[in-house]
Amino acid sequence: MSFSSNASSEVVPANDNKAINDIYHKLSNSFTILDISVIDDIYMNDATYISETQDKEIVLGKNPIIDLYATFFNKIKLKNAKIEVDFRLQVRQYTDGQATDIGYYLMRFHPGEESGEPMSEFAGKFVMVSRKNTQGEWKISVDSNTRSIPKFYYNATPIANLYYGKQYSQKPAQ
User: Fold this and answer.
1) 97: part of which helix (H) or strand (E)?
2) Measured between alpha carbons, how far is 28 from 59 in angstroms, rounded to an integer?
3) Which end of the chain is more exposed for a tag (fewer CB within 10 A), N or C?
4) What is the pLDDT along the chain (174 residues), one digit of tens a residue?
5) Which InterPro entries has this protein been placed in (predicted)?
6) How far is Cα 33 from Cα 22, in angstroms, rounded to an integer?
């Protein structure tokens, strides 16, 4: 087993690093365009989702996970709003065919203009496990997150070869 923490991910083959990092790009894009088909493409059939909310059970299976995202995306659409998410990875633990990533995320909610409400943001920490499927494609196997303060996301430093979104390089002017 190879581990990569606050150091370079040199032990992870470059093509695997790229494919795993691409999951975060796709996930960010799916939120921006509210496209559920992207979610369908990046999760394993037997994936597990562990929400930060205390009143939610562990979600088992890709279809129930897709249903959660679809409900969330539909709420955003009904409000004529937009949502953005970005990630900053800090740790990747890798074995052949499986990677565990740990990092921070930041979400920005942009209400519909007619609401007159300001943009809001919230952040969290996450653990995501990805693994190769039988076709050799990297997919999300376990997705877990907790809430935290945005400061941790903003203070996260880039780690060589790990996804580090640049979408939110600074706090918005308030």
Assistant:
1) none
2) 21
3) C
4) 344 444 434 479 999 999 999 999 999 999 999 999 999 999 999 999 998 877 889 999 999 999 999 999 999 999 999 999 999 999 999 998 999 999 999 999 999 988 889 999 999 999 999 999 999 999 999 999 999 999 999 999 999 999 998 766 665 544
5) NTF2-like_dom_sf
6) 16
